[in-house]
Model the fold of this input.
Amino acid sequence: MERCNARNLILSAAREPRHHRVQEGLVVEALTHRYKHPDPSGTRVLARWPVAAQVQRHAWDMFPDKLVDLGGRPLTVAAIDYLPYSVMEFSGQQGVDDGTEFRLLRELARKLNCTWRKELDPDNLWGEVEEDGTGNGIAGLVSEDRAEIGFSAMYLWHSVYRFVDFTYPHAVTGVTCLVPRPRLLPAWRVPVLPLSGQSWAGVVASLAVTAVALHGVAKATDECLGIATPGRFNTFTDCALRTVGLLVLQIPREDFRNFPIRHLTLWLGFMYLLISSSYNAGLSSVLTLPRYAPPVDTVPDLARSGTLWVANHEAWVTSIVDAEDPDLQTVAGNFRVFNDSILEQKSDESQVAFSIERLYGGNFAVGDYIRPAAVGRYRLMGQDLYRTYCTTVVRKGSPYARRWNRLVLAVLGAGLWRHWEGEVARRFMSHQVQLAVATSARRASEGPRRLRPEHVGGALLFLALGLALSSLCLLLELLYHCVPPLLARGSKSPPRSAIHIKSSHISHLGGSRKNRR
Done:
C-alpha cells in the first residue's frame, strides 16, 4: 500500500471557525498557512465575508499557488557526494554544492525564491526503506519526511516507490563494469594454442577413424582379395601408431603391393599435410604475437567467468535482483558489498570487477575507491549490465514535483544537461581517469616479439611427458616378458634332497674314475 503525506491533504474547516463581529454583523474568514519564510507555519487570510451575505467564490482564489514566491523558505535536501550528480565537498572545501542535480536545484530555487539546507546520512548512501516507512540514506530521509527532495543518481526502484514519489527522469544511464584485463596465457600451452578446442577434437576423431579404416581395409583385403601385408597393419596398435606417423608427415616407405592400402595412405597423407600446414601457420602466429585469455565483454561473459563484481552499496544491483534472465541472475548472485577502504585495496589486486556508471554525456562515474593508478589494469565492458533512468525522489504528494518536472523538461529541451555534465566533469573529475576508462577496451598493438625460453617450455613439457610414458611402457613390457619365465623356472626346480644325491653320485663317479687311472 502506498504511503500518503497527511500534511498535503485538504482538510475540512475547523469545528469553530474563526469569526468576529463588525458593525455589519458576523464575518467569516477563510485561512491558509503562509508556506514561506520566515514563518511557514503562520496563517494568512484568503477571503472574508459576512454570514448573511452570499459567498461569491469567484471573487477569490480558494486554492492559491503558494510556490510562486516562497520568500526565501529553505527546502530540505537529501544528497551524497557522487560525481557528477552532486558535489558537496571537493579538495577539502566544504559547501561546494555543485553538480548536475545541484544545478537543477539551484534553478528551482531561483524560480521559487527559496534556499536549501542539507539533511545528510553519508554512511548509508542511497539507503533503504523498511515496510513501516522508516529507513536510512536518501530514500529513508525522504520517506520519513526529514527531507523534501532527494537526489544523487536515484534510479527507478520499485521498493522505494511505495513510500516516495519519482519526478520525471532527467538522464538515461547505464551500469557497466571495469573488469580485470585478460592475462597472458601460460607458456606451456603454446603447443596447443594454434588450434581451437573444436579443431583438436576433430583431429583426434580423424586419428581414430583413420586407425579403424586402415585396420579394416587391411583385414578386408587379406580375407577377400588374398592380398596380405605381412608385418604391417595386422593389429590395431600398429595401425594407430602408423596413423600418428601420418599426422607428423612420416609416410611409410615400404613398397605396398596392397593397392587399397597404398591409395588409402596416399590420400591420408595429403589430408594430414593440410592439417600440419595449418598447425605450423598457427604456431608461427602464437610464437610471434602474445595470446591472452578471452576478455569479459558482455553479460554472458561475466556470468560464465564467475568474476565477482563489487561496490559500496546494494543499490547497484537492486535493478536486476528480480531479473528473469539466467545470466543476469548469475551476475546478481556474484555481487558483493564492501566498504571504501576494502574496495581501495581490492582495486590494486585486479581480482574483481568494479561497477561504474556510463553517463548520458559519454563520461563515466568512477568511485573514489578505484585508485587512478589502478585503472590501467582494468578493462571497460562493451555491454552494459542494465540501463535505467536517473530521477529525483520527493515526498508523496509533494507540491514541488510539478515545478521540478517542468524544470526538467525545460533543461532537457535546451540541451543544458549534457552541457552541465561536461562542465562538472572538466572541473571536478580526473581527465586522466576518464581517458583511461574510455580507451581501456582498446589495447595498442604490441607487435612482434623475440622468442624466449618459456616459448619452448610447452614442447619440453610434452617431451618430458613422452619420455616418462615411454619409460613406463618399457618397464611394463620388461615385467610382462621377464617375470613370468622366472617364476615358471623357479616353480620347476628339483628338490634339495635330489640335488644332494646327484652331487654325491657325481663325486663317487669321479673317485672311481681316478682309481681306474
